[in-house]
Amino acid sequence: MSRPPVTVVVPVHGGLDDVRRCLESVARHHPTTSTPFGLLVIDDASPGPEVRALLEAFARDAGGLPVEVLCNERNLGFVATCNRGFAHAPGDVVLLNSDTVVTAGWLDRLASAAAGPMVATVTPLTNSGSICTLPAGVVAAFDLAGPRPRIDECAAFVAEHSLARRPEVITGVGFCMYVTRAALDAVGYFDAERFGAGYGEEVDFCLRASAAGFRHLVEDSTYVHHRGAVSFGSRRAELLARSSELIHRRHPGFRAANRRERAEDPLRVSFAALELALEPRRPGRPHVLQVLHARPGEIGGTQNHFTRLVDALLEETDVSVLQPAETPGQDFLLTTIWDTGRGAPTRREHLIPARCDDGGAIDDPGAESALRTVLDMFEFDAVHIQNIFRHSLAPLKVLAGFPGPVSCSVRDLYLACPHHWLLYRNTQSCGIPEDLSYCATCLPETRGLDLTYLERFRRTVADRLGTVDHWVFASQSAADFLARVYELPPGRVEVIEHGAIIDTQRPTRVVDESLVLDEPLRVAHVGIGWSKKGLPAVNALADAFAGTGVEFHHFGELREAVSEHLHVHGRYDNDVLPELLDRAGIQVVLLPGPFVETFGHVLTEALAAGRPVIGSRWGALGERIRRLGVGWTVDPEDVDGMRALVERLDRCRLEVLRATRRAVEAELPPVEATAPRYAALYRGDGSPSRRARGAGGGSDVDEEAERLRRELRAMAVAYRQLQLEVAARGAAPGGARGGPAAPPWRRLRRSVARRGLRGTAVAAVRRASSVMRAGRSHVAREGVASAVRRAAGRARRAWRGRGGDPATRASSP
Amino acid sequence: MPPPVLALPEGWVLDEAARARMEHQLSRLAGSCSGVVAPLVPLAPGASHRVAAEWRALEPLDRVGPAGRGPVAGAVLARPGTAVRVHDDGVDLGPGVWVLDPGAAVHDPWRSYAGPEDASPEGRPPFPWRPVVLFLGTEDDPDLADWCRVVGNGLLALDVEARIAVPAPTGGLHLTRPCAPSAATVAALAPDVVVALDPRALEVVPEWLGDDRSAVVVEMTQHTSALVETVPWRIGVARGRVRARIGRGVRPPQLADLVRRCCAGPQPLPPRDRGRREGPPTRPPRDRSRARGALDPDLRIVAVAAPGRDADARLLGLADHVAAFGGRVEVRGPEHALDAEVLDADVVVVRGPGGTDPLHDLAARRRARGRATVVDVVADDVRIDRDGRVHLAGALVELARVAGAATAPGRAVRDALVALGVRSLVLPVLLPRARVEELAAARSSGAPPAAPVVGWRTGGPAREGDGEGAALGAALADLLAARDDLRVEVLDGDGGAPAGPAHRRRTVRTALAPADLAAWSVQCWTAPAAEVARRGDLRPAAEAQLLGVPTVVARGHPAVDDGLVAGALVVGDPQDPAAWRRVLDAVLASPDARSARAAEAAARADARYGPVGAGALVNRLLGWIARGTAP
Predict the structure, then answer these.
(1) Do residues B338 and B231 both lie within one domain?
(2) CATH of the domain at B518
(3) Over chain A (813 residues), what is each successive 10-residue block's mean pLDDT?
(4) Domains of chain A and any CATH numbers
(5) Quick one: B467 and B594 in the same domain?
(6) Is some CB atom of chain A closer than 8 A to the CB atom of B279?
(7) Rounded to the nearest 10 degrees, what angle do helices B611-629 and B313-324 cross at?
(8) ipTM topping 0.90
(9) What is the C-alpha separation between B333 and A426, in angstroms, rounded?
(10) Among A742, A285, A252, A309, which residue's Cα sits nearest to residue A496?
(11) Range of the domain at B246
(12) Residues B136, B67: one domain?
């Protein structure tokens, strides 16, 4: 049975110019609207003859648009007039205020959204319409509040850049509200008796519909202009107050729900995408998503390193950062740092509504949702998980389908064990024992977890290892520790030392022989003062050397008790640590903690001060000390051994001098020096040492062949994406009718273009995508797929012509 | 001065550590000896020449004895021009004063030893950082034994301590003395890596290693290739301690990389259960914010100043921070230099032009009693010429030599004193605690300036030929023209006319209260670097920075050497206005940039001059003094 056409109902009461603009806009877009509809204009006894004359003339000259004009003999009021329209229309209704202007594709998209199950109302975005009001930046950009608003431009912008999320809201907004016949049949029309004067009637209707199980959507890729506040002029405030009271009495929960909705803002992400689209990134620059564990404002080695790395990457790359927001248990924060052509990068922050659990779930739904949202907002070229901690393992699941390179830095060994300190009962380095009875003892004490959780955790990680293209470690030992638990493909392991996060060019970085040879031996423990970093051993040493002339100092925050013989300096700023050590006459830095470091920024800071280090033999500290000869290694469990070493160093200052020279001479490249390696990972270049070069390595033919190979891989990805999109559309109720034009096309075109596809391949993809974009007809799955297949075939033939291997898997979509 | 000459019989080995010690002895005994002898000694079983040298280096430096003339079995480091002759078995010493240093030793790597003995604990390095790898074999295999010798010698050059424990070591050049393959050897050496040379060794090594958590095993295969293959140590797949397999073709660099990698973990054995660590101890954390010295609260420091040298900022700052430790500083005139209470003071700090008998007498008497006297060198004692060379009055230097120690206002003066043979420590002008608090209060109470203000501290009247001042004046004129929100304030205490054209937004001040100084966004300090170095007074920068005003100075300024001024605020070419302009533009680029520089400057100043930094320096001073008077 065919559905009746939609009826666009425009209640009119005066406002001649507004009415004219409104009706003309409806008529203008009728020819390009595929949804069958008719226009019903109801004159609610407008004063003067002008309006009626206008309506009659319009009805005569409406072209192909079916127009019916009804006139109320007396003024019934807005609500009753709407009800007359509801009653008169055979099917779905769009209530359209007479002070609105519609735009291209408006009705098709509203109708498409309304076709979903149990939808009562659909409201578009606007410049003046409660929760559907565009952000101020967008309003200003298109001068929507001014005398000459750029309405069509704005509509095109919204359609192009919208994420088409169609968020659900508590109520629709009446300036332009698509109302389904199903909802009208179920709950009736507006309550004219109570809300007859206007305001609140649509809220009441929507709440009644919600109570009956219906939903209300915002069609966030459609813009309808609304002059607003015309209908009731000076009586607006009075009517608003009255209706608010009426609503509250009838629907007591509405106020709280409304407050909650405004706080959470279901349109937040949609609006963020539009605001960001106002200042688009400069084309041609890669866009990389960085997933960070730290909250804004948290201080630590990872954060300092990350900040400097991003600053270095910004020269060639645009960066967006996803991290938990400031307050635990709330939202995620997305920060975009883009080159928008203004000189300095433009930085914007947006909250992503997804509750950050932080509670140790294997897959935190909030983290998963936040990442999916962000991936939906932009087309990233690469993703780099700087630290997966606080995101649970969800990113490894979400990114499994990401087409670009995924890098994951292993800054701590959380992936090896949820107790990422790897300290058995918080006392000694566990070494990740094979015998899980140790874990069964340790995990409940330290993390409140059990062995079952550990096994499930590790199984989950193992299953998802393939998501990551580049596992990045700051030391070989960190990779070796993780290899204790998982089999990492050798070709996917990258060792990139972090680099120095402080300035290493310092006057203090000289060999001061007088200090080393001629002053009491002063040993400094640097870092947080607690068991994890070896404070008990430091205390024991301070006690053992009391009165001998050998001094022990501590720099950093203290979290546990200290020996009375320890010189306490308090917290310090990393940037001035070398000066602090110099001032205090420190000759040696002591880092005896049982915690296995994956890099050891403090070691770098000590070397920047020109001080050798006594460090744990395990992990990156031992690795770097042995490789550079910049100190000595100790077993964190062997305090007697540490004492013997310090005694010997006091007796043999020439050995301290030797190590000091090595410390001063050690090369300490800055973080910025590592940026090119990361940039290469983001490009998907892979490790240069492992990439096999073709015959003649680097010749033009080889480069061309490589380019074509990349194109085919990208075509295969694009083809798969299109398949999924078409399948999804085909499965939706109503088939492929209408549908959001922008997102699949936009995603596809950009992802394809960015991969450097050219010529016939781009043309073919463009053609295929324009078919989808038009959405006019039911596009056969094969039709789209065949278009892409033809394009892929052309590219493959071109590659073969260059001597490419026809058996390459990537060439077969 | 020509370098000393090493007389070393051919083929013998003198480790770098021993050489360095001999050089140090020669320097320490300057003028009183012709050369230092390192005796020829055998290696302990399982020791390398390097480890042997390190154990010997633990001997105190002053435990040298006379070495007579004539032939000695050893090596000699001799001053140029002394008579030394090298022969196969040692060195002949000519006329001169020679000392024998038991803390240095030389070895004959061709020496053969009787049948291998169990390793000595002295086979293990006293200063652990080079990994110890033990080649352990239980079968008599001469080829393999010799292979171990060659590879082991190669590893030593790569900072890996190789040891050989085989039943029948081969002859030849051994940089490390072989030892017996036994449990005792393994226990003594506690190797980081054991290379099991044969199946039997592979079988016994776990037992011999016992519960050593760290040692790993590398299996020698029959491959002749340069095989280096890591064995998976993944849970469920690992084979105990075995981490890798190697072939006989492996080269020392490959093996060294493997050994170092194996040392870093993960540990092959699980942890030893020592029980749970309870929560934080009941004693609350003592997060005190000052460095605490083990000071005697009755510590008396007496400062004796010559006429005209009254207590000044140097003394005031020092006295205040000593008082913070519980000690006290008293000031006396030189007429009281020989008073009993001065002679008996714990520490005496003297100032004077030198050549003053009472001060000399004071220093000499106190030294005889083992009491510390320190000469405080101040600006008036120092002249720095145009080339930056430091000149000190001869009498002052003599006084400092008698006293045995001197504090210097800055690094340049300290280095000059050290070059003259005087122990010296830098002691800058410290800010009293009350002053630091006053500045901190002024910083926190003031609102950030709405509009940027560039301060210029000239450090005195306009100087002829002051290219730096002229360049900065020109840069500031440019800035004023480019930015109509900018003001310039010139602080010129001596009232001289500063360089640069006048401007309605440029004012000259002769003094500034802290609150006014805090309103500056940045200050440029153009006092002559030599003058600042002479005075050792960085308070103009320190105080401004404590107020949150970053300081810009020229390259080579003492404030840079001190670490007070960050590198980004140093003008590379101070004669170039554009260079000043670049630095200032970066600081003034935005409120965020200014704020970041302000925070950085305050942190640097606090680290050096705040209570903790100053307290640390006083602690250091007292420790340095104590060491100088230790018997």
Answers:
(1) no
(2) 3.40.50.2000
(3) 89 94 95 94 93 93 91 92 96 96 96 95 95 94 94 94 91 96 96 82 94 96 87 70 87 90 86 88 89 84 90 92 81 90 84 72 88 89 92 92 93 92 92 94 93 95 94 96 91 94 84 93 96 95 94 94 92 86 95 95 94 97 97 96 98 97 95 94 61 34 53 57 52 38 48 48 53 42 50 54 41 32
(4) 6-272 (3.90.550.10), 280-495 (3.40.50), 513-668 (3.40.50.2000), 700-811 (no CATH)
(5) yes
(6) no
(7) 90
(8) yes
(9) 60
(10) A309
(11) 121-263
(12) no
Q: Is there a domain that residue B496 lies in?
A: yes
Residues B452 and B568 in one domain: yes
d(CA A628, CA A612): 10
Residue A84, number of CB atoms within 10 A of its CB: 20
Contact B265, A480 (CB under 8 A): yes
With contacts defined as CB-CB under 8 Å, which chain B residues touch A637?
213
Any A CB within 8 A of B625 CB: no
Interface probe, candidates A519, A531, A554, chain B, greatest B C-beta count within 10 A = A519
Distance from CA of A546 to the nearest CA of B (A): 9
**Is the residue at B494 inside a domain?**
yes
> What residues of chain A lie within 8 A of the CB of B229, using their CB?
none
Query: Which chain B residue is nearest to residue A650, measuring alpha carbons?
Result: B58
CB contact under 8 A, A519 and B130: no
Q: Which residues are B93's β-sheet partners?
A: B70, B84
Interface of A with B in 489-508 (CB under 8 A): 503, 505-508
More confident position, B420 or A523: A523
The residues facing A206 across adjacent strands are: none
Tokens coding A21: 């603009």
**Distance between CA atoms of A608 and A604, rounded to whole angstroms?**
6
B567–A contact, CB cutoff 8 A: yes
> Are B216 and B342 members of one domain?
no
Q: Flag if B277 and A487 touch (Cβ within 8 Å).
A: no
Contact B290 A626 (CB under 8 A): no
Query: Do A431 and B268 count as a contact with CB atoms less than 8 A apart?
Result: yes
Cβ of residue A687 closer than 8 Å to a chain B Cβ: no
Task: Please judge whether B277 and A531 are an interchain contact, meaning their C-beta atoms are less than 8 angstroms apart.
Answer: yes
Q: Is A278 an 8 Å CB contact of chain B?
A: no
Minimum Cα–Cα distance from B234: chain A residue = A484
CATH number of the domain at B171, please: 3.40.50
Instruction: List all residues 6 or more positions away from A622 whose beta carbon is below 8 Å from its beta carbon.
Output: A477, A615, A616, A633, B263, B264, B265
Same domain, residue pair B475 and B579: yes
- Tell me if B305 is assigned to some domain: yes
Taking only residues 597 to 636 of chain A, the set having a beta carbon closer than 8 angstroms to any beta carbon of chain B reads 617-620, 622-623, 625-627, 629, 631-635
pLDDT tens, B233-248? 899 888 889 999 999 9
**Amino acid identity, position A258:** N
Residue A570, phi-psi category: left (phi > 0), alpha (psi -120 to 50), beta (remainder): left
3-state helix, strand, coil in chain B (%, to 5): 35, 20, 45
- B84 & B150 share domain: no
Residue B293 belongs to a domain: no
Which residue, B48, B25, B7, B29, is CA-closest to A654? B25
Number of domains in chain B: 4
Residue B293, Cβ density class (10 Å: 0-12 exposed, 13-18 middle, ≥19 buried): buried
CB contact under 8 A, B260 and A626: yes
Kindly report, residue by residue over B516-564, the tens digit of the pLDDT: 899 999 999 998 888 888 888 899 999 999 999 999 999 988 898 888 8
Chain A contact for B238, CB < 8 A? yes
Based on the domain organization, do B71 and B161 belong to the same domain? no
User: Chain B: residue nearest A594 by CA?
Assistant: B271
Q: Is A335 on the interface with B (CB under 8 A)?
A: no
